[in-house]
Amino acid sequence: MKQKERRPGQKKTSGPSGESRRDDRAGRSPKPVARSAASRETLRESAVPVAAARPLTTRSGERPAERVPVILESLGAGDFHLIDSGDGQKLEQYGPYRIIRPEAQALWRPSLAPQIWEKVDAVFTGDTDEEGTGRWRFPKAALGETWPLNLLGVDFLGRFTSFRHVGVFPEQIVHWSWMKDQVERAGRPLKVLNLFGYTGVASLVAAAAGAEVTHVDASKKAIGWARENQALGRMEKLPIRWICEDAMKFILREERRGSQYDIILTDPPKFGRGPNGEVWHLFEHLPLMLDVCREILSPRAAGLVLTAYSIRASFYSIHELMRETMRGAGGAVESGELVIREAGLDGKTPGRALSTSLFSRWVPK
After folding, report:
1. Strand partners, 216
2. In this prediction, what percent of the chain has a pLDDT beyond 90?
3. Can you tell me the distance from the alpha carbon of 42 to that of 40, in angstroms, rounded to the nearest whole number?
4. Which string of DSSP letters, residue by residue, matches 140-176?
């Protein structure tokens, strides 16, 4: 569906745990990079199967109840809001900086005057493909690569990357807020698994709320950035395991070990490679990935969250897959789209909604 731009090293690139994530190339053939520069570094010439043959589990019982379509909307939070959009671009506020980036789904005309769009700190130009490189132009003054940001009480670094990403995907705020609430209300330490964790903002939000977190990403650069974010917020003592590995290999090993998690977030790329050349194709490997995630959910699990970017599919595709995967587990599957609503210059004036990705979420009640 849409592009979720992704990480500086782009998160979803590596095979299952890769980093390339959202891109606007809905109809283009996949390139050998998954998410970002970081992910490109993990590519290998050889094509290693993503996982050894492991048959899907035959499940019985009723499928979970369904809630569709569900639109999860953000008007912004903390240091971020979407100011305006149109003519294939979006105007965003990230802390002190006003930024323009490509946005293929902004088919309409901008609401604000051209003079507003001209008074920006950074503009991304060049190749708008997620797998292609471009460059940043700084109309006012040269800016450093990073700058401090805060979302949901967590400090992290924004980054100007050659893949137009800035180190965070703010449409995920709605999932992070849900997760934070689950952790805080649980009355016990929840175990959270963050697959394709990118720069670690979701992991830090979960850990700050009291969870024990396992963060998996195949990009060494993305893991390094996540650790920088942890240090920036003086959160080194929080219980987070940073795992640089192919996501599918990791969860298959966790299944063999009998490990269990209360919340699993997974945000796989459309195409990617792991650190050892593992190949990931979303339409081929997503059923197995969800199947294994089901097996490592704890009996008292709070939820399983899937997001998908830049794919030629309806949200119903991942919705029905999630319901089949969770057959016999009870609860409900809610699926639809994540959107960000324009908030104007003041961050409080609602405008048009910009679709960012598909999602499906299983919850026990």
Report:
1. 195, 243
2. 75
3. 5
4. SS---SEEEEEETTEEEEEE--TTS--S--GGGHHHH
Separation CA 172–CA 270 (nearest Å): 17
- With tokens 């209300």, the residue in question is 185
Map residue 31 onto helix, strand or coil.
coil
Residue 18 · residue 41 · CB < 8 Å = no
Task: Please tell me the distance from the alpha carbon of residue 269 to that of residue 286, in angstroms, as a whole number.
Answer: 10
The reported pTM is: 0.85
Summarize pLDDT for 62-104 with one digit per residue, the tens. Answer: 999 999 999 999 999 999 999 999 999 999 999 999 999 999 9
Q: In the 8-state DSSP scheme, what is residue 297?
A: B
Which letter, b or e, does each residue of 167-197 get, where b requires 16 or more Cβ atoms within 10 Å of its Cβ? bbbbbbbbbbbbbbebbeebeeebbbbbbbb
Tell me which residue of 161, 150, 238, 177 sits closest to 6, measured CA to CA.
161
- Per-position DSSP letters for 157-226, written without gaps between them: EEE--TTS--S--GGGHHHHHHHHHHHHHSSSPPEEEEET-TTSHHHHHHHHTT-EEEEEES-HHHHHHH
- Phi/psi region, residue 322 (left: phi>0; alpha: psi -120 to 50; beta: rest), is alpha
pLDDT digits (tens, 9 = 90+) for 45-60: 233 445 557 899 999 9
315-325 and 282-295 are packed helices; what angle lies between their axes, rounded to 10 degrees? Answer: 30
Residue indicated by tokens 């998410």: 35
Pseudo-torsion of CA 251, 252, 255, 256, nearest 10°? -140
Counts of helices then strands in the chain (DSSP H, E) = 8, 17
